[in-house]
Amino acid sequence: SELSTMKISGGFPAITAGWIKSGLHHFAMFGAAEGRPGSGASGSGINVTGKLVDGYIKDATVFADANGDGKWSEGEAKATTDAKGNFTLEGAKGAMIASGGTDLSTGKSFKGVLKATEGSTMINPLTSMQQAFVEKGLSVADAEVKVAKALGLDASKFDLTTFDPLAASLDADATPEERALGAQLQAEAAKVANFIVAAGQT
What we know:
It is built from five helices and twelve strands. The chain is of the alpha+beta class. It has a four-stranded antiparallel sheet. Strand 9 and strand 10 form a beta hairpin. The protein is globular and about 45 Å long.
């Protein structure tokens, strides 16, 4: 299976170079959608307001990849994230792709490429994993289950397309369980981000 090269140790995934090459390396990092299911869209598109998160990333470019070629093309919805990582796309169709900007948690330029499934209001390293599975032919729901299984988590506890783990981990009004889940997902996202950034620099 797609997870055959992923091992779970102590509750945390050891993501091998082979899995990254076949999954994130080809799809989430370099945007070669190649017309696979989930990479395109039909209709007039939708308006999407969301966040870009590694830490929150400001001044990044986000676009909806309507034609599935992994690159922004004239007529595709595009926006720049604000000082808190927020963005709004009007008439968005297709998977969402983000790059550039400054990671507010480090103060450094973000060097990778992040993706999310069509219509997502959250773009982060975990949604990049999800979109990689969608581009291999899985449904959005099945892709989320794959990601959750890889992380040793229960997919029924969260929705990757909308859940902000960073915000949840810091929310004083959240339950201890919600904060713990947010912290765990954010920790896993940070690990995936390290692979994404490293691959983007090779």
